[in-house]
Amino acid sequence: MTEAIINKGTGAGGANTNANGLPYEVITDLSDRYTIINVNTNTKNIRFNISDKIFVTPLTKKKFLKMMSNERNTDISDAHGCKEPDEVYIDRIHKVIFIIEKKFQNNGGSVCEKIQTPHFKKWHYERMFPTYNMVYIYCLSDWFKENCKTELEYLEYLNIPVFWGNDINYKNNIINFMINYNS
Length: 183
Hints:
The longest helix is centred in the first third of the chain and has 13 residues, at 15-27. The protein has seven helices and seven strands, in the order αβββαββααβααβα. The protein is α/β, with parallel strands linked by helices. It has helices spanning 15-27, 64-67, 111-114, 118-128, 143-147, 149-157, 170-179; strands spanning 34-39, 43-48, 54-58, 87-91, 96-103, 133-140, 162-164. The chain has a domain at 27-103 and 118-142 and 160-179. The radius of gyration is 17 Å and the shape is globular. The chain is 31% helix and 22% strand. Mean pLDDT is 88; it is low at 1-15.
């Protein structure tokens, strides 16, 4: 007979992940900064309120791979953690996919390890969508500034943009980054 293992660590996953992470995803969501131009089966075309540039975004997280099915390399199978990015914006004219992953933490835990993986995810997305330039972006809570200094240094080394969701200018900063991005 095997005993059930109960994770009682501070900041443990499960319910705490949803209790803390989902509200963070909501307050950092960019949908209040764009206008929907039109809606299709899996996508919506949007324009950020400060620009005329058009982006395509999935209707829901689950629709990302469906919306890209015609442009996907089907020889590449799905990798764990690469199916439902928190937010995705696609510039079809310049062939750029912006993937925004959001991580919230306010106490100890293993979340620092999660921000060590962008090189793998970017590599995987590049193989899945070889005609696109992939820009992998992190939106992090301020906790990471003091608790993941080496990981942040590594993200800078990899040229992975990091935006701080608690920054009052977060939404403008990340939107300006995407609008003005030159590959």
